[in-house]
Amino acid sequence: MVYLDYSKTCPISFEALDTYTKASKEYIGDYSASNKLGIKALNSLKQCTKEIADLFNIMESEITYTSGATEANNLALIGVAMANHKKGKHIIVSKLEDASMYQICDYLSSIGFEISYVENDEDGLVDFEDLKRLVKEDTILVSISAVNNAMGIRQPLKMIRQIIKKENPNVLLHSDASQAIGKIGINFHDVDLASVSSHKIFGPKSIGFLYCNDMVNVAPLMYGTKALNVYQVSIPLVLAFATALKTALNDLEKKEHFICRLNEKIVNSLGDYSDILINKTKYSIAHILSLSLPNNSAGLIEKYLSEKDIYVGYEEGLNTTVMAVYQDKKRASSTIRISLSYKTTTDDVKEFITGFLKAYEQYGK
User: Fold this and answer.
1) Which of 18, 94, 234, 280 could form a cystine bridge with 284, CB 3.0-4.6 A?
2) 310-347, pLDDT tens digit by residue?
3) In a shared domain, residues 129 and 155
4) Can you give the residue range of the structural domain that contains 347?
5) Mean pLDDT for the chain?
């Protein structure tokens, strides 16, 4: 099998699975209980949270566990909106976000919040002048993904934060960092809130967290305890997540260098075909590579590859990121995404190229 859809989800690593299995047997108590099993479970959760906080140089109190980045995004946007609606009802979002983010925005718009979508330049970066223009006195939040999930475009979060704070020091900056963690270095002190997901870094599904600076006021989405998350956090999931994080954040530069070589091999192999358009800018990270294909053949090519046990990313319809960058509906209407990881091998890439070109000869021309 050749798996090249890591930006969608990753298989759980052996190390994370081993941690989960052992923790499931060892920590059987309810960490809210006052008995010995409960105290043991609580101490384990506290220690693990400290380890995660130390990895990002943040406080344990700034971590709220969620079921993943989508819940973290909901908690960030809706929670900030509800907690700060008396200060303003204006929110700014980029045009290069995950589709789930726009559903959150649609909901907020339906209950009276004003949503503005900041333009981007030809390289996919947020248009700084447009961002300055959009920030108003009643703006409460800006949300910009650290790395775009379709073309891998990396945004300069520190600069974005400086711009919005200069225009209005009370505006908060949130970033969906789920495509950045484990791929590039990211500093949570460049933002006020950030969403992280475990299954993007070879951890278990159904666990993630929202980083929320202690100075930020966020309203809970559910009630039942004093915490932002009211349900019982799974200690085995948290411990396995921490295991995956430690591995993901180790040797980032070395991993990135290797992935750059794999990316170049694909680009060089497909670059001679004038009707295969490679969607990348100078700010795209090597882990994510988007291709636009002629004759609306992306779906057929993806299906052909799947039958050969080669897996890439494909979603039917208009790719909003490609559209936002290139302003070309035809180009944005037939795309596939290749996402690489440090576990991808050169043989994987060779097999993909061979399979892809056979599919292209059959369906693309």
Assistant:
1) 280
2) 999 999 999 999 999 999 999 999 999 999 999 999 99
3) yes
4) 251-364
5) 95
Asked whether residue 83 is assigned to any structural domain, the reply reads yes
Helix/strand/coil for 27:
coil
SS3 of 336, please? strand
Count of domains observed in the chain? 2
- CA angle, 209 then 210 then 213, to 5°: 135
Structure-token pair, residue 103: 């559903």
Q: Report yes or no on whether pTM surpasses 0.90.
A: yes
Last residue of a domain, one of 248, 276, 294: 248
Place of tokens 């060089």: 268
List b or e across 183-210, with b for residues whose CB sees 16 or more CB atoms inside 10 angstroms. Answer: bbebebebbbbbbbbbbbbbbbeebbbb
Judging by beta carbons within 10 Å of its beta carbon (0-12, 13-18, 19+), is residue 246 exposed, middle or buried?
A: middle
CB distance 102 to 73 below 8 Å: no
